[in-house]
Amino acid sequence: MDKQRSNLQAYEYLCHIGEAKEWIEECLGEEIDPIVQLEESMRNGIVLAQLAHWFAPGTVRRIFTEKRLQFRHSDNINYFFKAIKLVRLPNIFWFELTDLYERKNIPKVIYCIHALSHLLARRNLAPNIKNLVGQLEFTNEQISATQRGLDQAGVSMPNFGNVRTSLKHELNEVDEEDDIQYEPIFVSKYSSAIVSPTTPDLIEESDSDDEHVFEEEITEEEKNEVYWSEPKNLANLIRCQSIVRRFTVRKEFNQIRDLHKSSLFESQIKNVQAQARGVLARRALEDKRIMYEDAEEWITNFQAATRGFLTRCKYQDKLDYYKANLDKIIKIQSFVKTKLVGDAYRKLTTATNPSVGTVKNFIHLLDDSELDFDQELTLEQLRQSVIRRIRDNGQLEAQANDLDIQIALLVQNAITLDEVLGLSRKMNKKVQRRMSEIASASNNNPYSLRSLDKDSRKRLELFQQMFYLLQTEPKYLSRLMYIMNGQESADHLGKKLVETTVLTLFGYAQNSREEYLLLKLFKFCISEEMSYMEDAQEFMRGNYIFMKLVVHYNRGAKERKFFRDLLQPLVNTVLDDDFMDLETDPVNIYHKSVNLEESRTGRPSARKHTATSQEALADAEVRDTFIQHLKRLREVTERFLSAIISTLEEMPYGVRFIAKELKQSLEENFPEEPKQNIVKIIGNFIYYRYLNPAIIAPEQYDVVDTVITPMQRKNLAEVSKMLQQISSGKVFDANDLFLAPLNDYVFEAGQRFSQWFVSLTDVEDAETHFGMDMFADYGNTHKPIVYISPYEVFHMHYIVHNNISGLEPENKGPLRDILEELGDPLYSPNLDMPESAHTEMSLTLTNRYDKIPHDPNARLKQLLVDTKRFLLYVIKIQNGNDLKAIFTQPITAEHEHMWAELKHIEFLDREESQDVLLKRRHVLLGTVDDPPTDLMSLNFHQLKTITVKLVLNLERCGVISSGNNYQDLIKMIAKDITNKNTRRKIRQGEIQRLQQTLTHLQEKTAYLEEQKGNFEKYIDNCMQNQMNKRGKKNKFVMPFTRQYFHIRQLQKDGRVPKFGSYKYTAKQLYDRRILLELTDISPKQYDRIPLVISMNEVGIIEIKGSYAGWGIASMAVELRFEELLQTQFNGIQTMTVLDGMAKINVNLLIWLINRKFYV
Question: Signal sequence: where (predicted)?
Fold first, then answer.
């Protein structure tokens, strides 16, 4: 019985909702949600706000129509409160904001709508609400669901049947249906009496039936006399007559009024009035004309005096007003001028093809100040100083390299390793290490890059040049990685070795130079991959080699510290909570619940062990756990997301730079791609490639030091999955149906994450961040060194050699030149390399073209600058629609006069230094050897002629075209105007970088001079030490020999060389093959030609010979021993001495010198 009563209550409540629904639809003229959904759909207040706007339009400003429930929807409900207050609905029928927004008392809201309908119906402002109880049908499920909702709300049901009575009570009014309207009844009654012939019969008679007894006995005339003699009947008659008279008078009045309102009457009256007014006006006009003719002169003078007085008064008032508001007028004028100039400048900056007139308005902005010229002079002087210093350092470095080779040759020639180390104890450690490397180098291993012979050293230099080129020219490695990525046949180990070699080449980005170069490589790789893509989304699907390098780069020390600072507290919150479980699969939750129940009770569970997702969610315990997991997952995800977004400034520069280049490349290659899609790709890179690995595996990034359990890993994976979905900008679909309740949060969080991704790309360029420029390597004291194994060197040579056609498709270039000199690779996939090839070595990188950078287009750029400067002078003098019109315009004397004035302003009247004025007026138009052109000496005709020739020269060079009337030049000048401040900033930055480079070059100069001095000192000490050792040994000289008499003669003359002297005949040296030939002398005469080899100074060998046929007593030549070794190293077998008269064998001469002076 109670259930039936409850169902009846729910049914009646649904009917009342239906009544309110139909009444609202009748008012609004549109359908709203069904009855069973109306309670939920009304929470946002949209329907109530529309209803309020219908019966009280002025109360609703703007309806918030967002479908997802937000707090701003409360504004809609407040509009409804404002409207019912306006129509004075008693407060007893009102509901609270929370009754509807939080669904605390929806029946009271429906009750309020019922009361409002009755109130508006009483005032004829709305239709009556219908009674639908018993007329609507609902299913048992709908009635039961409604009753459950009422039971859960716990509110009492209003008395809908008594709402009309309650409203009348509150308003203190009588029911309109019971009111008596006397006036309409009265008018109806007496209106019919006027037109009816039986009007007296309509008057009520109160006589009794006895008065009718004598009616038949008297005549009709007597009856009338008796009837009208009654006072009451007479009064009624008088009232009837009054009504008739009033009706008759009104009827006549209405007829006359209708006549007056008729168009015919009005037109006749108007004609009469017009004729009368015309006569009167003409008469008055004639009188005035006669009067004015008599006083015409006086009136004219009076009018003139009056107008003058009034004009002077107005003018004086205006002057007084202007003087009183002078400050305001100046401000207004300034504002107007600023507005006009701003509009013109905006037109200059935004127009695709700005006109000559627009550019002419802003030409003055290009006039360089004295500060600009000073900075230009400073910049040029710094460039020249840097260039000179680079040249000087190049010479010093070449000399140091030669000395280095000579030291190596000395060591190889005769000095043992122990002797070298003993001699170099007083030298710096670097020289000692270098000597040790040279002394221990192997000359027989073909895979050794340290052998001291010309071929090995040449091969080493070529490898140094090749790896320097690969490191500093990112186009080669970017193309190589693209080629290898597309080669399906490329073996995995080969790709892996290339990745390792590239990372080794860049030193794993451990210093600023290598990090800068590695980031430039990533930039070129992105550009290379994008150039072959047809769809922007393809980037996210690719598995690129360079992206693996990015992953390795992101595991550097800086990145690990960033991850530790950011993620350690977040990950610890997950790891420290032993009871945290973020499982979102209902089936898994169901299985865990069954297992827990059986573990707790020790008995099989009554629930079945297999269940679908729907069956699992039907379980109350599983459903509650599932909801709790979703809430907890959202909380943890929000904590991670908020922490990540707050680290904009702490984010390492490298990943921000890559994101920036990725964004720019996408926008350039896919200009039609929506911005949100580009942001999604950037988000995929930053989160999926960078942040996600550190969240899933924090122990690999030093975020935590503990072991992570499977449950903890599962929780981190769930958080990572949420963040991945947020970063993609998409909500969960059918594949993740059970995470769909979080879609509102995912959408909102995705907006924040996207904004953060865009903010990350706002970062300075790499050159500014690292302070790098084209002179950076020239200023470094030490050349870059790469620690790499010969195996990696030979393998990279093999890979580059096999793919050279893709790396340099032009069939010429520096890389091809190096490979041609290197020859065929020593590496082969089927060849086993020796163990020594896997030993790490240091490879000092060298620039093959270690010369001053030269821009091949420098002269063309200077020509363009000069052309624009001349063109500016021409535009200042002459006007035209385009440049071609200006060039064809004739020159007048006025133009020459204007040019003369402009020359004085530009070159004479400026308050600038003399150097600046001279630089301004002189322009170098020819070669460096030609004298500069003095603009002061040119007339305008000459100036214009030179300008036209310069423009035609640029057209021949393909810089501009006459097809668009040289509009390209106008656009260039407009761009120069808008970029003036930017150019100043760039110039200041260049000055700072050049000053820093010059400082580094000076430091390098000091270092090279010191190194050169150390090498020279080492050579001198080494040779002196050898000679000292040799000097202690007194070799026995056979008496009465040629050598014996030679020594005696030297002793007698006091000319004994300090380190020895040996006399031979040419025949003796010829027989030993030391002497190859003497020019124009027969070998038969060699025994009569003496040759003396002596050494008086350390390392200086003197060869002296005499022959009567030479025309002079004797010939002598001094040779430095290290130069002889250098000649031998260079592979020169023979050389001429004694002014070309003698030809000797270099190798045997060195052997003789070693034997006589160093052994």
Answer: none
Residue type, 444: N
- Could you give the CA distance from residue 823 to residue 819 in angstroms, rounded to a whole number? 6
Please tell me the predicted confidence (pLDDT) of residue 748.
Answer: 94
Q: What are phi and psi of 775, to 5 degrees?
A: -100, 10
- Environment class of residue 339 by beta-carbon count within 10 Å: exposed (0-12), middle (13-18) or buried (19+)? exposed
Reduced 3-state DSSP string for 567-630 = HHHHHHHHHCCCCCCCCCCHHHHHHHHHHHHHHHHCCCCCCCCCCCHHHHHHCHHHHHHHHHHH
| Angular region, 726: left φ>0, alpha ψ -120 to 50, beta rest | alpha
Side chain identity at 293, as an amino acid letter?
A: E
CB atoms under 10 Å from CB of 664, counted, come to 15
What does the radius of gyration of the chain's CA atoms come to, in whole angstroms? 55
CA distance 599 to 602: 5
Given the structure tokens 């791609």, which residue do they identify?
673
User: What pLDDT, on the 0 to 100 scale, is given for residue 248?
Assistant: 87
Is the overall model pTM greater than 0.70, yes or no? no
Helix/strand/coil for 988: helix
Q: Where do the structural domains in the chain lie, given as residue ranges?
A: 2-178, 182-197+220-261, 262-324, 538-584+633-769, 1034-1158
Structure-token pair, residue 151: 């039971």
| Nearest Cα residue to 482 out of 528, 445, 437, 515 | 528
Q: Give the integer Cα–Cα distance in Å for 729 and 686.
A: 13
The size of the chain, in residues, is 1159
- The CATH H-level (homologous superfamily) assignment of domain 2-178 is Calponin-like domain (1.10.418.10)
In this structure, are residues 94 and 167 in contact, taking their beta carbons and an 8 Å threshold?
no
Kindly report the CATH number that applies to the domain delimited by 538-584+633-769: 1.10.506.10
Mean pLDDT by 10 residues, the chain (1159 residues): 68 92 92 89 91 89 86 90 92 91 91 93 89 88 88 85 85 48 34 36 37 46 70 82 87 79 75 89 88 84 91 91 86 80 68 74 61 61 70 70 67 46 42 42 53 72 89 91 75 78 83 87 91 84 83 80 91 89 88 82 79 84 90 94 92 92 91 90 91 91 87 92 91 84 92 93 86 64 79 88 88 88 82 70 78 57 78 86 87 89 75 63 64 82 89 86 84 76 72 77 78 74 63 58 71 74 82 83 81 80 77 74 74 78 82 72
Please state, as a whole number, how many other Cβ atoms lie within 10 Å of the Cβ of residue 562. 19
Helix (H, G, I), strand (E, B) or coil at 1058: coil
CB atoms within 10 A of CB 119: 21
> Are the CB atoms for 506 and 517 separated by under 8 Å?
yes
Q: State how far the Cα of 694 lies from the Cα of 702, in Å rounded to an integer.
A: 9
Helices (H), 646-709: 653-669, 675-683, 692-696
What is the spatial distance between Cα 1026 and Cα 662, in angstroms, rounded to a whole number? 64
How do strand 933-934 and strand 922-923 relate by DSSP bridges?
antiparallel
Q: How far apart are CA 237 and CA 1048, in angstroms?
A: 190
Tell me the one-letter amino acid at 650.
E
Q: What angle do CA 86, 88, 92 make, to 5 degrees?
A: 125
Residue 462 · residue 843 · CB < 8 Å: no
CA distances (Å), origin 183, targets 188, 194, 195, 244, 248: 8, 17, 19, 18, 20
CA separation for the pair 966, 68 (Å, rounded): 58
Amino acid in position 937: S
DSSP 444-472: S-TT-S---SHHHHHHHHHHHHHHHHHHH
Query: How distant, in Å, are the alpha carbons of 379, 406, 429, 850, 1015 from that of 401?
Result: 32, 9, 17, 14, 10
Any idea what the Cα angle at residue 459 is, between residues 453 and 465, rounded to 5°? Answer: 135
Query: How many angstroms separate the first and last alpha carbons of the chain?
Result: 131
Spatial contact of 654 and 666, defined as CB atoms under 8 Å apart: no
